[in-house]
């Protein structure tokens, strides 16, 4: 049996996905010491986890240093990397939407969109026939319409509370997001039996 | 924009240092001997082509083309692949003389960088094209040659996955209700987005028999052991029979263990009309190469004959080829000014013995120790030797 390297996002998604693997019958220690470690070896199952920033998981998988990984659909849509998307794990479900101040229209000459997801935003507005200018931010996107930096924001919404608390309303639902199991194209072939088996076992525990 | 530092190169451009250079040369030599022994003739085409001819016909995305403008205002491209220029030269010149053609190439191609590092914008490609033979035997020859070539490089752990555009089109057409639905599913397969495929099938609101068939197909089709397993999805057609014959020919060559079937394999270029395949090897995160039948490209250049071939990326080959150090012995002859003639004679003698000899004046050395460390043997030509 060949060694399998799995890239995982740190934090809550790791815990949920890890529990799914245990449910699927993988022999993993119940408690895993998460402190500052970036690599966890599970010799019993010949599995190695690497813990990465969510945005970086597809990078590790595309370059083949991780065979498979768990990545949000938002990241996959934004980066469009050459990976196989095998399974929707249906964890950390949310969606991407546009939002702005209530009862406002977008500027007619040069509407500005603030976002962490420049590609998703650009593609969306292109699709609906709207030419916009993208302003890329790294966090606290909700600030942008409040202080006049942008007409709309494009961001992840899970409960909508952050929007409400900052006096913003949702305008358009752009796409649904959840965590996906992805695979490197070469690993998908060379370790096909292991990966297929893992997908098969996990599939039964997807809600 | 910050100003350029003197050491900088354009994004994705790389220098080839001596060790890599020798490795590439060894690959070239092995590949060349191998392919010539199978009757392939090597050809070369220009680095620059017209955008309107080769550039537009090429399978490479527009954004990845390096473009220039010539003095007449025509847009030129640095060739992004070799198949398209070979199709051009074959249809315009070579096909008139002889049919079918077996051509081989080892050349650098250029693809502009879109994302981050780890991807060269110029890299070597080695491959073959069989032009003017539309039979299944030509496709079998391409696959068998690809497998044997990879073996000739000393690579053991590799896999070739084969699909067929005709089989896939038949399945997509039969189980969807419109051409748009089929196209949408094909696009998702090109992106290898199986989750998206399942979602799209659910969203189409197809009759249950059709959607169930598609979902079952996507679950099984990436990993089909035998051609019989796909038969239940496809009504009898030529493409399926063709694949049966192809797999049989590969089994006659005793190479079935290197081959897997994947009927979801699809290309964004519609000129891949028949079978197509990808090559994967352990040791590289990216596919080693790909190939297939591209009759449509020849039609684009105005010829009605069939064509099939494959290309392997040399940069990825470098990652997976086991390295074997060249055994040639290296000698440095270090001489004093007066002994130059003597040193020349001595070097000639050693070179005739098949050694790699470097001549170096002692006066020219700053750090003699560092210099001599690079060689197997050091010979000092001094006054005493003259005696």
UniProtKB/TrEMBL annotation, chain A:
It is an enzyme of class 2 (transferase). Its EC number is 2.4.2.17. Residues 53-203 form the ATP phosphoribosyltransferase catalytic domain. One of its GO terms (biological process) is L-histidine biosynthetic process. It is found in: Cytoplasm. Lacks the C-terminal regulatory region which is replaced by HisZ. This is ATP phosphoribosyltransferase.
TrEMBL record, chain B:
Keywords: Amino-acid biosynthesis, Cytoplasm, Glycosyltransferase, Histidine biosynthesis, Transferase. One of its GO terms (molecular function) is glycosyltransferase activity. InterPro entries: aa-tRNA-synth_II, aa-tRNA-synth_II/BPL/LPL, HisRS-like_core, HisRS/HisZ, HisZ, HisZ-C. GO terms for biological process: histidyl-tRNA aminoacylation; L-histidine biosynthetic process. L-histidine binds at residues 81-83, 111, 125, 129, 271-272. Belongs to the class-II aminoacyl-tRNA synthetase family. HisZ subfamily. This function is generally fulfilled by the C-terminal part of HisG, which is missing in some bacteria such as this one. This is ATP phosphoribosyltransferase regulatory subunit. It comes from Lysinibacillus telephonicus. The gene is hisZ.
